[in-house]
């Protein structure tokens, strides 16, 4: 049966800009690039060797723009990225010029994860999340 999530695929409007964001700002490593039979350019990014849960960026040559979707749309709502230290990650990203934060880090709460939300270059909602030990 299902063992886990292999990757999340995100259609992007500008592949180079999205690679720069996920690789240079979020620290993902470019694992492979390829072109599909339909002409789409695909880039797989990971947080390290042996990691499950890659981000896959897909650029469709015929699509030149992407409409931003409303927060209550059907389909992908957000991607949660696990972090060890939410405050340090938030500050590191701001220092790298990431400014599209929707929420700042939430305060510690009993039995609840801490989160912050940020948009990628195409408006995909990314949730930075860390689980607080009691």
List keywords for this structure.
single chain; 134 residues; alpha/beta; 2,3-Dihydroxybiphenyl 1,2-Dioxygenase, domain 1; 4-stranded mixed sheet; 8 strands; 16% helix
Summarize the structure.
The chain is 16% helix and 32% strand. The strands form two sheets. It has a four-stranded mixed sheet with strand order 1-4-3-2, covered by helices on one side. A four-stranded mixed sheet has the order 5-8-7-6, with helices on one face.
Description:
With 134 residues, the chain is α/β, with parallel strands linked by helices. The chain folds into 2 domains: 1-62, 2,3-Dihydroxybiphenyl 1,2-Dioxygenase, domain 1, CATH 3.10.180.10; 76-134, 2,3-Dihydroxybiphenyl 1,2-Dioxygenase, domain 1 (Roll). It has 2 helices and 8 strands; from the N terminus they run βαββββαβββ. It has helices at residues 15-25, 86-95, and strands spanning 7-11, 29-35, 41-46, 54-59, 79-82, 101-103, 114-119, 125-130. It is globular, with a radius of gyration of 16 Å. The chain starts with 6 loop residues before the first strand and ends with a strand.
